[in-house]
Design goal:
heterodimer, A: mainly alpha, 0% strand, B: Guanine Nucleotide Dissociation Inhibitor, domain 2, 3 domains, 18 strands
Chain lengths: 86, 478
Amino acid sequence: MTSEEIREVIIDILGDIAPDEELGDLKDEIAFRDQLELDSMDFLDIVMELRKRYRVQVPEEDYGELASMQSTVTYLEPKMQDVEKA
Amino acid sequence: MPMDFLKGVSGEYDVTVIGSGLAGMTVANALARSGHRVLLLEQHYKLGGMATWFKRKGGHIFDVSLHGFPVGMIKSCRRYWTREIADSIVQLKHVRFDNPMFSLTTRYHREDFTRLLTEKFGVSQSQVDAFFDAARGMNFYDDQQLTVGEFFDQYFPGRGDIVRLLMEPITYANGSTLEDPAITYGIVFSNFMSKGVYTFEGGTDRLIQLMQKDLIKSGVDVRLRVDVEKIHVEKGRVTGVTANGQFINTRVVVSNANIKNTILNLVGRDNFSSEFVDETEKIRLNNSSTQVYMALKPDEQIDEETGDLLFSSTAPAFQTDLLLSRDITSRTFSFYYPRTRPQGRPRSLVVSSTNARYEDWAELSDEAYEASKQDLIETTLESLDRYVPGIRKKLDHAEAATPRTFQYYTRHALGASFGTKFEGLAVSRGLSSQVNGLFHAGSVGIIMSGWLGAINYGVIVANEVDALLLSKNTAQVG
């Protein structure tokens, strides 16, 4: 998966988690929590969805890597380079 | 021949969940939805654990622990349960305080509390903002040296009245005190302050019924009246459980039983490091409760202005030891108007709750115990009469529950009604590093307590179990 495809995957997951949020204006370099009403359970949902959909494991000590879109994509790129887009 | 409640239980399960409290049910549901074979075992004859109810003659249904939870419950129920459950969650609009220091009614959210603190209690806007922001910024992994009492002192020094306003409801919500770590307060209080207090329309019976339906739909094998006697561990990994005398193969066990009971009795201390056993033994259980359940005659009503939740006290000041004393001066009344159960017969009920110590009730003789219960009912009615004049004439049924009652039905040591103190969380989280395939989900550490805390902790543990099972499966293939 390319970084652009990973970004799309995250947007798709966020759309399910926060259906009332406007994701079109999301700034990649700013923390999700400063733009969206997300709590720690929402981040856990991102982790669970990544595992369910793509069998990608994010260990708890790495949850901090999911702070913004930019850091999330950077973190997931090596993990998802061999994953086919669904 | 005794009935076999395990009839048809077969082969091997990926996960066996012991106990069907809200955490246990949520773990079971989440893992079954992820495609794992899940067995849910409950010793009682109905699901729910402390999320329970009982019926009495006259069409009365009493809720034991439905007193109000934060708005986050809507999201958690929508995501991990069903839309029908989430859509039944409604706001409680009248939270009332009445004590020698102040009397007021509030929506119990940040906006309204800010108004009260600035206008009624004379605190500056900036000070109130600073307090709310500090509480909201707390994380469970933060420094635990600061106590709740010290935290309040930083923002409202010498203001016993404000401490009472801020602390009393949380003490009733999870049994925490001014001596507990500040983070336990900050996390729970901020959850409530985000939007106020919510309840489940239809009552606990309807909620558990809907959850049971969804568990079956998700493919969970649900068994009632099944008592787990032992969790088997071989070479550092879970192999099965013995329940009602029968061995059941399972790769993972999630215990929704008390954490100490799980480690020291169900698994056995020999399977853990001595340091871990020491930590386990040091866990303090939270206190227990007494409750008085009162039902009004069918044609009697209570004015809804009386409140949904009423924190009533005659104590001159807020003190932790006073709250636990058998000489009760503080009570929380939960009012259940006919709208609580729109599907049922219109009934008005009141449940009075007080925090209590198990040891104060454990040693009483049968005679003294009955007399104490009767006294509890009488003094509670006396107190309620101030808010519902003529309550004795309107009353159809009244009975009391004590720490002994809670112990009997939940099998919690000391009748603990809010799980454990803060240190229980680390032990609960650390189980799987001691024994492969062993997990715990339930009320621990204060922050994982209450209906929302239990459900969310269930989700957190389900995530860990799912990750472990996935890596085990992958290892087997590759």
